[in-house]
Design a protein that fits this description.
Shape: globular
Radius of gyration: 16 Å
Number of strands: 6
Number of domains: 1
CATH architecture: 2-Layer Sandwich
Distance between the termini: 31 Å
Helix content: 40-55%
CATH class: Alpha Beta
CATH superfamily: Ribonuclease H-like superfamily/Ribonuclease H
Order of helices and strands: EEEHEHEHHHHE
């Protein structure tokens, strides 16, 4: 979905802007989500696409250049990236791991602290189910961020989920009812029959 140009950076001391990344060697999902007080807001999201006719290293070089441009455009405070998923396809997992490493270096070069989250941790953070389908993640993220349409493509909605997961885990919303969850996040989870628990800042998310 087309997004408007980035708005001027907010100056509230409680505002936190996070860049979420869904890594890949051909397509990289990205999303910038800002939390101010008890509100989540999608600043921008989309995908970076590499020329599939190029060797993998050339694709990764092009993707990291585009990622550096994104960090300059949207000025995030922190970044979060999904870990490589170790499924049945070991070769695919290795390729994603290479992409994740290259993108993490680009984020670190931009001066960002980079947190890493397992796929099931991200899904559970936004849907309450660690094995949720991508379409479920997409629908939940739409509700959490009050988007007019489902965020697409799925790589972008996954990146939004990574950013939301990070904000939830780091306690960006501060103390209060619901364990610091933003109202729309709490409501979205409750609509799915999930009773949110107080965030403890634990799990597999960690700075790299």
């Amino acid at each position: 979905m087309p997004m408007p140009p980035p708005e001027p950076r907010k100056t509230e001391p409680t505002s936190v802007r996070v860049l979420g990344i869904d890594p890949g060697t051909r397509v990289v999902g990205w999303a910038v989500v800002e939390a101010t007080g008890s509100r989540y807001r999608a600043v921008a999201f989309g995908v970076l696409r590499a020329d599939t006719s190029k060797p993998v290293l050339e694709r990764l070089a092009a993707l990291t250049r585009e990622l550096r441009t994104l960090t300059k455009t949207h000025a995030p405070d922190e970044a979060a990236i999904e870990e490589a998923f170790h499924g049945r396809d070991a070769r695919a997992a290795l390729a994603i791991g290479e992409a994740r490493g290259a993108l993490s270096v680009a984020l670190a070069d931009a001066g960002l602290t980079v947190a890493s989250y397992a796929n099931n941790v991200v899904k559970k953070a936004v849907t309450g189910a660690g094995r949720a389908r991508k379409e479920q993640v997409q629908a939940s993220v739409r509700r959490i961020l009050a988007l007019a349409e489902p965020p697409s493509p799925l790589d972008a909605s996954d990146a939004l989920a990574v950013a939301v997961c990070h904000l939830q885990r780091r306690g960006a919303m501060g103390p209060g009812a619901g364990g610091g969850l933003a109202p729309r996040l709490r409501e979205a989870l409750e609509k799915q029959g999930i009773q949110p628990r107080r965030a403890r800042g634990r799990g597999r998310g960690r700075a790299r």
